[in-house]
Amino acid sequence: MYHIVLGVCGCCGALRPRYKRLVDNIFPEDPEDGLVKTNMEKLTFYALSAPEKLDRIGAYLSERLIRDVGRHRYGYVCIAMEALDQLLMACHCQSINLFVESFLKMVAKLLESEKPNLQILGTNSFVKFANIEEDTPSYHRSYDFFVSRFSEMCHSSHDDMEIKTKIRMSGIKGLQGVVRKTVNDELQANIWDPQHMDKIVPSLLFNLQHIEEAESRSPSPLQAPEKEKENPAELAERCLRELLGRAAFGNIKNAIKPVLIHLDNHSLWEPKVFAIRCFKIIMYSIQPQHSHLVIQQLLSHLDANILVRAGIVEVLSEAAVIAATGSVGKGALKETPGWNARQGRMSGDASPGFRVSPHATPHPRSNPVPHLFPAGSFASTLPTYQRSEVILFIMSKVPLPSLHHPMETGRTGENRNRLTQIMLLKSLLQVSTGFQCNNMMSALPSNFLDRLLSTALMEDAEIRLFVLEILISFIDRHGNRHKFSTISTLSDISVLKLKVDKCSRQDTVFMKKHSQQLYRHIYLSCKEETNIQKHYEAVYGLLALISIELANEEVVVDLIRLVLAVQDVAQVNEENLPVYNRCALYALGAAYLNLISQLTAVPAFCQHVREVIETRKKEAPYMLPEDVFVERPRLSQNLDGVVIEFLFRQSKISEVLGGSGYNSDRLCLPYIPQLTDEDRLSKRKSIGETISLQVEVESRNSPEKEERVPAEEITYETLKKAIVDSVAVEEQERERRRQVVEKFQKAPFEEIAAHCGARVSEPPPSPSGTITAAYGQPQNHSIPVYEMKFPDLCVY
Questions:
Q1: Confidence of residue 783 (pLDDT cuts 50, 70, 90)
Q2: Distance between CA atoms of 778 and 480, rounded to whole angstroms?
Q3: CA distance 149 to 671
Q4: Which of 679, 706, 736 is the last residue of a domain?
Q5: Do residues 151 and 103 lie in contact, with contact meaning Cβ atoms separated by under 8 Å?
Q6: DSSP letter (8 states) at residue 72
Q7: CB 291, CB 283: distance < 8 Å
Q8: Could you tell me which of 621, 569, 565, 622 has the C-alpha nearest to residue 593?
Q9: Residue 553, exposed/middle/buried by CB under 10 A (0-12, 13-18, 19+)?
Q10: Does residue 776 or residue 117 have the better pLDDT?
Q11: Which residue windows are transmembrane per the record (predicted)?
Q12: Is residue 598 within 8 Å of residue 576, measured between CB atoms?
C-alpha cells in the first residue's frame, strides 16, 4: 500500500502545470541557501516566452507567500519577494498588469504584518516597483491602502529607537514611491486629492520636525555620515521637495493646505523656526510662477488665526523674499480677495510684537514693525514697467485723511491706520530703492505724487521720514544719495565726485507742474517739532538731489527762496520750536546754500555764503552742521539775539545772482507756501500756520529781516475769513473762464481777432540769461512754449 501511495503522489506531481513546477523549484530545501538562481533563470525565461502565464505565476507566488507568512516561514517569504522583484524587472509585456495585481496583494500582506522586517521588506519591493516605467496603462489600480499604511509607518512609535527609525524611513520611502508612480500618470488615482494629501504631507512634516532630535542622537563624528543616511528628517525633506516640485498650478492649494493645518494643530507658528523652515522648503521647491499662490494661501490663513498672526506674517515675510526671485508682479497682490482689509486686520489685531509707540521716531530701515507684508520684495527684481504698476497699487492702499479715503476713528482705528501706513510705505520704499526711470513724469505721476505728499502732512514723524526717503529714492537716478548722507559745509564739493546730467525737457515739465507742491511739503516738514537728525539729513539729501537731477534756472531760484524761508522759520520761531530744531534749520540752510553756490559757480554768491559760514565758525558754531548734527550737539541756549552777520541775506543773494542772469525779481520775493485742502483734512494744525505766515510776510515793509513788522494776531474770525476768501477767489476765476468761453462761442470773428491783436503786441521775450549747471558750466536757455503769455481766449 505504501508503494501505491508514493506512486500516486509522484504521478500527481508530474501532472502539475509547468509554471507551478518552475516556481516550486526556485525554493531550496533550506531557506538560508537563498534563491536557486539557475531555476530562477528558467522561470524568467518561461515567463518571457509565455507572457500569458505571468498572471498565474504571480497568483501562485502570492499563494505560497501568504501560506509562508501564516506559518512564520520568513526565509521563504524573502525568497518569494526576491523572485517577484526579478520577474517585475524582466517582464514589460501587456499582461504585466495582472501580475502587478498579485504583486501588490503580496506587498499589502507584508505591510499588514506586525513584524518590522516584513514591513520593511514589503516597502523595499514596492519602491523597486515604483521605479519601473510600465509600457501599458492601468485603469483600475488603487493605491489608497498604500498611502494610508505608509503614512501610518511614518508615525511609528516602536519602543526600539533603531527599529522605529527604520520603520519611519520605510514609510517615507513608500510615500515617495507612491508619488513617483502616480503623480505623472493621468490614468492613476489622483494623488493630489485632499484625501491623499492630508495623509502624505503631515506624515512628512512629522518626521521633518524631529530633525533636531535625530541630530542629537549622533554618537560620534566618525559615525555621522552613516547616521545622516538613516535620518528620517532628511529623507522626509527630500521627499517633500520632490512632491512639491511635481505640483502643477492647480495642485498647489491641496499641497499647501495640509501644511497650514499641521502647523495649526501642533502649535508650530510660535516659535517660528520650524514654520519658516517648512515654507523655505516649499518656496524653493515649487515652480517660481506658482509662488504667488503660496502667498495668497498664507494671507487667507491669517483670517482664521488671530492669536498666532505674528508668526504667520513672519513666515509670510520670509516666503515673499524668496518669491521675489520668481516671476511675480501686481497680480500676486491684487488676485488675493480683500487684500486691503487683511492688511488692516494684520496691523491692528496682531500680537504684541506689532505694538509701536506713537512717539517713536526711528530710521525707516530700523524696521519698527517687525512683521510686515513685504510687498516690495515682490517688485524688487521686476522690470521698470511692472515696478510702476506695483508702486501705484501699493500707494492706492495707503489710508489717507482725505474726503475720498476716510480714516478709521478711535484709538484702535488710529493705531491700525498708522501700522498699515508704515507697512505699506516700507514696502513702497523697498520697491523704489534702485528704481531707474529717465522720465520723472512716469516715475512720479500726479495721482501717485499727490497721495504720497499727502502722507507727508501727518503728525507721525516716522511716516514723514518714510516719505522723504521714498522721494529721494525716486529722484536719485545717478547714485548720488549716499554722498549727501552727512550734512556738511565742504569748501570744495568736487571731492564728492557727483554724477550730473543736463536736466531733460521731461524733467523740466515735471518741475513746472509739481515743483511748488514739492517745495511746500519740504517747507512744512522743516517746521515739525518732532523732527530728529534723520529728518534733517533726509531733507538735505532731497534738496541736494533736486538741485542735481532736476535743476534749471527757475528751480535754483525757488530752492534758494525756500531755504531762506526755512531760515526765517528758525529766526522768527512762531512755531515755538526747541533749540535743537532751530539750530538744525540754521545748519541745514548753511549746508544747502554752500552746495548750491558751488553748483551755480557764481563767484559773488560763493563769496557771500563763505563769509557767513566763516563768521558762524568764529562766533556761532551752533548754527553749522558740524556742531549740530553730531552725537552730542553743541547748542546755544539763546537764539533770540542772532545778528544779521550770521544770516544769509535775501537782498544780497538776489543782487549777486541777478547780475549773472538769474531772475532777481523772483529772488526778492519771499517764499510763501500755498494753502490746499490737504491742510484742512489732515490732522496737522497747518491752516493757522500757513495763514499766519502769509499775513506776516504780506505785512512786511521789506523782505529783509532788519526791519520786521509783528505778525497780525490770528483769531477764529481771521481763519474763517481766509477760508471764505479763498473759496470766493476760486469762484471768481471759474466765472472769468466761463465768460471767456462764452465770448469765444458767441462773439463775431472780427471782435475776437481785434481782441487778440490788442493783447499780442510783441513777440515772446528773449532768453533771460544763462543758467549754470554743475561745476559752473553755463548753458543758454530760451523761453519754453509753456512759459509764453497767450491771450485769455487761448487759455482753457
A1: low
A2: 22
A3: 81
A4: 679
A5: no
A6: T
A7: yes
A8: 565
A9: buried
A10: 117
A11: none
A12: no
Instruction: Flag whether pLDDT at 592 surpasses 90.
Output: yes
Q: Which of 624, 645, 679 is the last residue of a domain?
A: 679
Question: Given 3-state DSSP classes, what are the helix, strand and coil percentages for the chain, each rounded to the nearest 5?
Answer: 65, 0, 30
Q: At what angle do helices 37-49 and 74-90 cross, to 10 degrees?
A: 40
Give the C-alpha separation, 654 to 161, whole Å: 88
- pLDDT value of position 470: 92
Q: How far apart are CA 262 and CA 240, in angstroms?
A: 14
Residue 609 lies in a domain: yes
Q: Which residues contact 25 (CB under 8 A, 6 or more apart)?
A: 36, 39, 42, 43
CA distance 292 to 304: 20
Average pLDDT over residues 693-717: 45
Would 295 be classed as within a structural domain? no
- Over range 319-328, report the average pLDDT: 62
pTM, entire model? 0.56
Q: Are 323 and 294 within 8 A, CB to CB?
A: yes
User: Which stretches within 368-460 are classed as H helix?
Assistant: 375-379, 384-396, 410-432, 440-443, 446-455
Three-state SS at 638: coil
Alpha-carbon distance of 576 to 98, in angstroms, equals 93
Chain centre distance of CA 196? 33
- Mean pLDDT for the stretch of residues 574-597: 93
Amino acid identity for residue 734 in this structure = R
In a domain, 28, yes or no: yes
pLDDT at 377: 56
Establish if 505 belongs to a structural domain: yes
CA 253/CA 297 separation, integer angstroms = 7
* b/e map 415-438, b = 16+ CB within 10 Å: bbbbbbbbbbbbbbbbbbbebeee
Domain hosting 124: range is: 1-137
Please report where in the chains the cell 546755544 appears, as a residue: 636
For 771, list phi and psi in degrees, rounded to 5: -115, 135
Our count of domains for the chain comes to 2
Q: Which long-range contacts (CB under 8 A, 24 or more apart) does 222-231 make?
A: 230/165, 230/166, 230/169
Percent of the residues in the chain that have a pLDDT greater than 70, as a whole number: 69
Give 150's pLDDT tier (boundaries 50, 70, 90): very high
* Lowest-pLDDT range of 618-627, 715-724, 732-741: 715-724
The C-alpha cell of 132 is what? 519601473
